[in-house]
Amino acid sequence: MANVSLTPSGPPETVLPVDPPNVQQLINEISTSLTLDRAKLLQLVSLAPRSPSVWALYGQHGLDTLESYAAYRVGYHRGLDMLRANGWRGSGFVRWQHPSNRAFLLCLLGLQVNAEHIGEADEAERCRLFLLQLDPSGVPEDK
């Protein structure tokens, strides 16, 4: 079932579905652990390879800039696939205020930041502009 609605004064808005409970539970376990269990992180990737939430978490825990960049890139593309499957047609809002959209937006932000770190200024700028198109209010700085 597509979750696209028309906003009162503009383009449609898409809200992504939430991850299944077992994926959410494992994300929470990894996120709240004092030490990163890479085996558990890889188990999570195997459990839900299409989830932007999984790739956002992987990007946050990449061993270096390149690994984080790669994880965020996968999460961004998986998120685009999910957006399209949920009615997004290349334009319209994907707002931070909806918790289920946050992982995709974090992947796009992570891609932007890591593209800057590896000298991909054009890609970083495209990501920055895309984030503003998707949610003009922006992704909170502390995320």
Key descriptive features of the protein:
single chain; 143 residues; mainly alpha; two-stranded antiparallel ribbon; 2 strands; 57% helix; globular
In short:
This protein is mainly α and 143 residues long.
Q: Mind sketching the topology for me?
A:
Layout: E1 4-6, E2 12-14, H1 21-32, H2 38-47, H3 52-60, H4 65-85, H5 102-117, H6 121-134
Antiparallel strand pairs: 1-2
Helix pairs in contact: 1-2, 3-4, 3-5, 4-5, 5-6
What does this structure look like?
A hairpin with a 5-residue loop joins strand 1 and strand 2 (12-14). The protein has 6 helices and 2 strands. It has 143 residues and is mainly alpha-helical. Helix 3 (52-60) runs parallel beside helix 5, helix 4 (65-85) runs antiparallel to helix 5 (102-117) and helix 5 (102-117) packs antiparallel against helix 6 (121-134). It has a domain at 46-90 and 97-136. Strands 1-2 form a two-stranded antiparallel ribbon.
Cross-sheet strand order for the largest sheet: 1-2
- Overall strand count: 2
Assembly status: single chain
Structural class: mainly alpha
Question: Which parts are unreliable, with pLDDT below 50 for 5 consecutive residues or more?
Answer: none
User: What is the beta-strand fraction?
Assistant: under 5%
Calculate Rg over CA atoms. 15 Å
Report the end-to-end length measured between terminal Cα atoms: 29 Å
The overall pLDDT average reads 93
Helix and strand string, N-terminal first?
Answer: EEHHHHHH
Q: How many helices does DSSP assign?
A: 6
Shape: globular
How many strands, which pairing sense, and closed or not: the largest β-sheet? 2 strands, antiparallel
Helical fraction equals 55-70%
